[in-house]
Amino acid sequence: MMTDITSKRLHEKTGQILDRLRRGERFRVLRDGEPEGFIVPVEEPIDPEWPEIMAEVLAARQMAKPVLGNPILKERKARNHAAHLC
C-alpha cells in the first residue's frame, strides 16, 4: 500500500515520515497535486530485474530475421587462424 503525502507535509513531518518508512510504509510525494516521486524502504528493490529489462529485446530478436554474418569479420578470422598454423 502506498500513502500520498504533500511535499509540505514531508517538509514539516520528516521525522515521522521516516519512522513510518522504517516500518515498511511507502509514500508518493505530491507537489501542487501532481506526483513528484516515491519514497520506499531501502530493502525494497526499485530497479527491475535483468530478465524484465531484456524482455522486449529478446522478443524482438525472436521476431527478427536471422542476421547474416559479417564477411569482413569472417575473412579476418580466417586470416588469424591461418597465421597461427605456421
List the domain count as a whole number. Answer: 1
- Bulk shape: elongated
Average pLDDT figure:
88
The main sheet comes to:
3 strands, mixed
Question: Stretches where pLDDT falls below 50 for ≥5 residues?
Answer: none
Number of helices: 4
Structure overview:
This protein has 86 residues and is α+β, with helices and mostly antiparallel strands. It has one domain (2-85): 3-Layer(aba) Sandwich (YefM-like fold), CATH 3.40.1620. 51% of the residues lie in helices and 20% in strands. The protein contains four helices and three strands; from the N terminus they run βααββαα. A hairpin with a 2-residue loop joins strand 2 and strand 3 (34-39). The longest helix has 15 residues, at 71-85.
In short:
With 86 residues, the protein is α+β, with helices and mostly antiparallel strands.
Task: Itemize the secondary structure elements and their pairings.
Elements: E1 2-6, H1 7-12, H2 14-22, E2 26-31, E3 34-39, H3 50-63, H4 71-85
Parallel strand pairs: 1-2
Antiparallel strand pairs: 2-3
What key attributes describe this structure?
alpha+beta, YefM-like fold, three-stranded mixed beta sheet, 3 strands, 20% strand
